[in-house]
Amino acid sequence: MIALRSILFNTAFYANLIIRMIVLSPIYFLLPRKKAYFVPKDWARSNHWLMEKIVGTTFTVEGLENIPEGGYILAPKHQSFWDTYALLPWLDDPVYILKRELLWIPIFGWYVAKQRMIPVNRGAKGKVMAQVIERTKLEMANGRQLIIYPEGTRRPPGAAPEYKYGIARLYRDINVPVVPVAMHPGLFWPRRKFLRFPGHFVVRILPPIEPGLDPDVMHATLMQRLEAASDELLIKTAKENPKLPLPATAVNRLKELGAL
């Protein structure tokens, strides 16, 4: 049954994406940039509905009161494709730093360009990276919210943390709060797998780390707070979803925490 529901959801998910991009393109590209953001935000909401109705997966967002006004860096745990879009409905005007190749995808790339996302050549250094930072500063000066994953890439739930230092440099240069977000969508939408699992999990938005700290201190604080919240939510999610098949990384971490 899980395999069948997963196939149905994956089919509906991609059909939903393609049909919306085609049908809503005239509206999206005619509207001013920020107003046009309702299209991807509504797409995100529809994906939540599809996942609930087809797979049986639901989630709760805690800590919305911790979101500051204006510009800030949102720093979520990154485990799944789910968390690349899931929080869009709760954000005012988010912006991503993303690999430039995404701009080359027909229609999707045009959608991305419309929202002034910040493309980067991952192999570039020096002057090019300095230009990316300047572009990021410009977007953030307009009150946008930068979404950046502190570990850089998707990590399995419970895996040992591998935080990159780039977020500390951005924090220093842009001088805005950093808002950590703990969650475990990878237990229900695993990376590089087509199976989707039913159950419920929590997305926890933590209090912001205010600007002005030494970058090393901010980096250590971010890792400590985010890992502590992640451990707490891993224990909670495992207890509340006893039939959920846990990956080895999650099982090992729960054993380390004395929860198994």
TrEMBL record:
<feature type="transmembrane region" description="Helical">
    <location>
        <begin position="12"/>
        <end position="31"/>
    </location>
</feature>
<keyword id="KW-0812">Transmembrane</keyword>
<feature type="domain" description="Phospholipid/glycerol acyltransferase">
    <location>
        <begin position="72"/>
        <end position="186"/>
    </location>
</feature>
<dbReference type="GO" id="GO:0003841">
    <property type="term" value="F:1-acylglycerol-3-phosphate O-acyltransferase activity"/>
</dbReference>
<keyword id="KW-0808">Transferase</keyword>
<dbReference type="Pfam" id="PF01553">
    <property type="entry name" value="Acyltransferase"/>
</dbReference>
<dbReference type="InterPro" id="IPR002123">
    <property type="entry name" value="Plipid/glycerol_acylTrfase"/>
</dbReference>
<dbReference type="GO" id="GO:0006654">
    <property type="term" value="P:phosphatidic acid biosynthetic process"/>
</dbReference>
<keyword id="KW-0472">Membrane</keyword>
<keyword id="KW-1133">Transmembrane helix</keyword>
<protein>
    <submittedName>
        <fullName>1-acyl-sn-glycerol-3-phosphate acyltransferase</fullName>
        <ecNumber>2.3.1.51</ecNumber>
    </submittedName>
</protein>
<comment type="pathway">
    <text>Lipid metabolism.</text>
</comment>
<keyword id="KW-0012">Acyltransferase</keyword>
